[in-house]
């Protein structure tokens, strides 16, 4: 049985993260990220659920997750996974998109999977350059060419649409969670804010967001904890500052969603902190 490897680089030139998971068997539960994820499968098969649709993904497939796209995946037939991805914050994607298209907007990937994409090789080359900490010129050029092709091939402009009354209530709940994630939050609190009963709240929230309120809260906490760890904050302090009752609970949830321990994630950035 081969040894699993989990490697992460933060590229300070491009301001993006590059993850590489090699030989892993981990199941990732339903969750979301605040940033874009663009990845590809090097080997292995997975069953992917994204926004309540099911996919079987394998070698050579590209994956796209927009910010807040809920998704989950698990291995098939005990096959390990070799996977690489780039994590791109919305502000970086907006900046690059504007430079490429001349328009100030956030692109929206229309589907989470592109089978046998022609851009897989270009993404693989860029990812390896980041892993090798290559000089900026060719790496940046490759990054812009990649994003240009992906925008043209797989995205549409996000447009404002009118939302219903319940969706407004769900948006208010999300804003409340994002403002009060450091505090204890109960389902009763959310029901009171939304003026919905608890069952209606759970049903509507899950339908609109594709994720339960509790999972949304914990994911917000993990995303905020990542920001603290990037600044060199110790895992225990990050846990306490983001509403987790203890470090054990925090570490378990962080590993479940991110695929690394809080300490491993913090170490990516420690050497660059002055």
Can I get a quick summary?
This protein is an alpha+beta fold. It is about 45% helix and about 25% strand. It is globular.
Task: Report the CATH C-level class of the largest domain.
Answer: Mainly Beta
The order of strands across the largest sheet is 1-2-9-4-7-11
Class by alpha and beta content: alpha+beta
Rounded to the nearest angstrom, the distance between the terminal CA atoms is 40 Å
Instruction: Give the CATH architecture of the largest domain.
Output: Sandwich
How many independent structural domains? 2
Overall outline: globular
Domain HTH araC/xylS-type: 171-268
InterPro entries: AraC-bd (IPR003313), AraC_XylS_family_regulators (IPR050204), Homeodomain-like_sf (IPR009057), HTH-like (IPR037923), HTH_AraC (IPR018060), RmlC-like_jellyroll (IPR014710)
Protein name: AraC family transcriptional regulator
GO molecular function: DNA-binding transcription factor activity; sequence-specific DNA binding
